[in-house]
Design a protein that fits this description.
This protein has 233 residues and is of the alpha/beta class. Helices cover 29% and strands 28% of the residues. β1 and β2 form a beta hairpin. It is globular, with a radius of gyration of 17 Å. It binds adenosine-5'-triphosphate.
């Protein structure tokens, strides 16, 4: 059985008289250790999928099997536990705490999980050995995103969910961040899911799930993912 399996997941929002279908019977599988890209235009329903997979929201219908358990049936308390221990999050605008240094931001992971990695070691691994004592405002966008990735990885998540992680970065910096995510996936075996509207990123993934208009349009498996350095856009 697949490590992650979404089975006919739908999410509806009631807006007055109208019912908005943000996800309409979405199904896909993800294997452990895969690098997955969820691709689709703005409004397609990507963030909704990620929120449901990350335990930030419940689906209206469907099953979300993670490691053999249907998280759609979790109580809010179980879901909190899942979010805290099993999932790492990386967002477009980094979401660092501005009055904490890079190191302190990563140390927050230890307050959430008792199996957290040492903050300095993780910052070292993402290439920020010399910037640990800096505050977010003293770091470039790419460096801030590295801190955010380090913070997510410090929890040793089973699953790393990234919502447009390069959306606020220039081309070269974006590529460096994607390389870090691809290397992390390969070296630590963490399952990584990146949502993006950028089609050019797709060749780096083991699996590409295309979403359009709240539904899965195609699923493409790639036996030979390209190294990020060889991708141009
Ligand atoms: N809390 C909500 N209440 C009402 N409608 C919502 C809510 N969240 C999302 N939607 C609607 O659901 C649809 C899918 O939104 P979603 O954010 O998942 O798309 P997306 O693919 O992530 O887009 P983007 O790339 O612009 O973030 C949109 O029509 C959106 O307006």
């Amino acid at each position: 059985m697949a490590y992650i399996s979404l089975q006919k997941v739908s999410k509806y929002y009631q807006m007055g008289e109208t019912k908005i279908k943000a996800n309409d019977s979405i199904s896909f599988d993800i294997d452990k250790g895969e690098f997955v890209v969820i691709l689709g235009p703005s409004g397609a329903g990507k963030s909704t999928v990620l929120n449901i997979l990350g335990g930030m929201d419940y689906p209206s219908e469907g099953r979300i099997m993670v490691d053999g358990t249907n998280i759609a049936e979790f109580t809010p308390k179980q879901l909190t536990h899942y979010r805290r221990l099993d999932v790492g999050f990386v967002f477009q605008f980094y979401n660092l705490v501005p009055n904490l240094t890079a190191r302190e931001n990563v140390e927050l992971a230890a307050q959430i999980s008792n199996r957290a990695l040492d903050a300095a070691e993780v910052l070292d691994a993402v290439g920020l050995t010399d910037r640990m004592m800096n505050f977010p405002a003293q770091l470039s966008g790419g460096e801030q995103q590295r801190v955010a990735i380090a913070r997510a990885l410090a929890k040793r998540p089973k699953l790393l969910l990234c919502d447009e992680p390069t959306g606020a970065l220039d081309y070269e910096t974006g590529k460096q961040v994607l390389k870090l995510l691809q290397d992390t996936c390969r070296e630590t075996g963490t399952t990584v899911v990146v949502i993006t509207h950028n089609q050019a990123i797709a060749p780096m993934a083991n699996r590409v799930i295309e979403i359009n208009n709240a539904q899965v349009r195609s699923i493409y498996e790639n036996d030979y993912p390209m190294p990020v350095s060889e991708i141009e856009w």
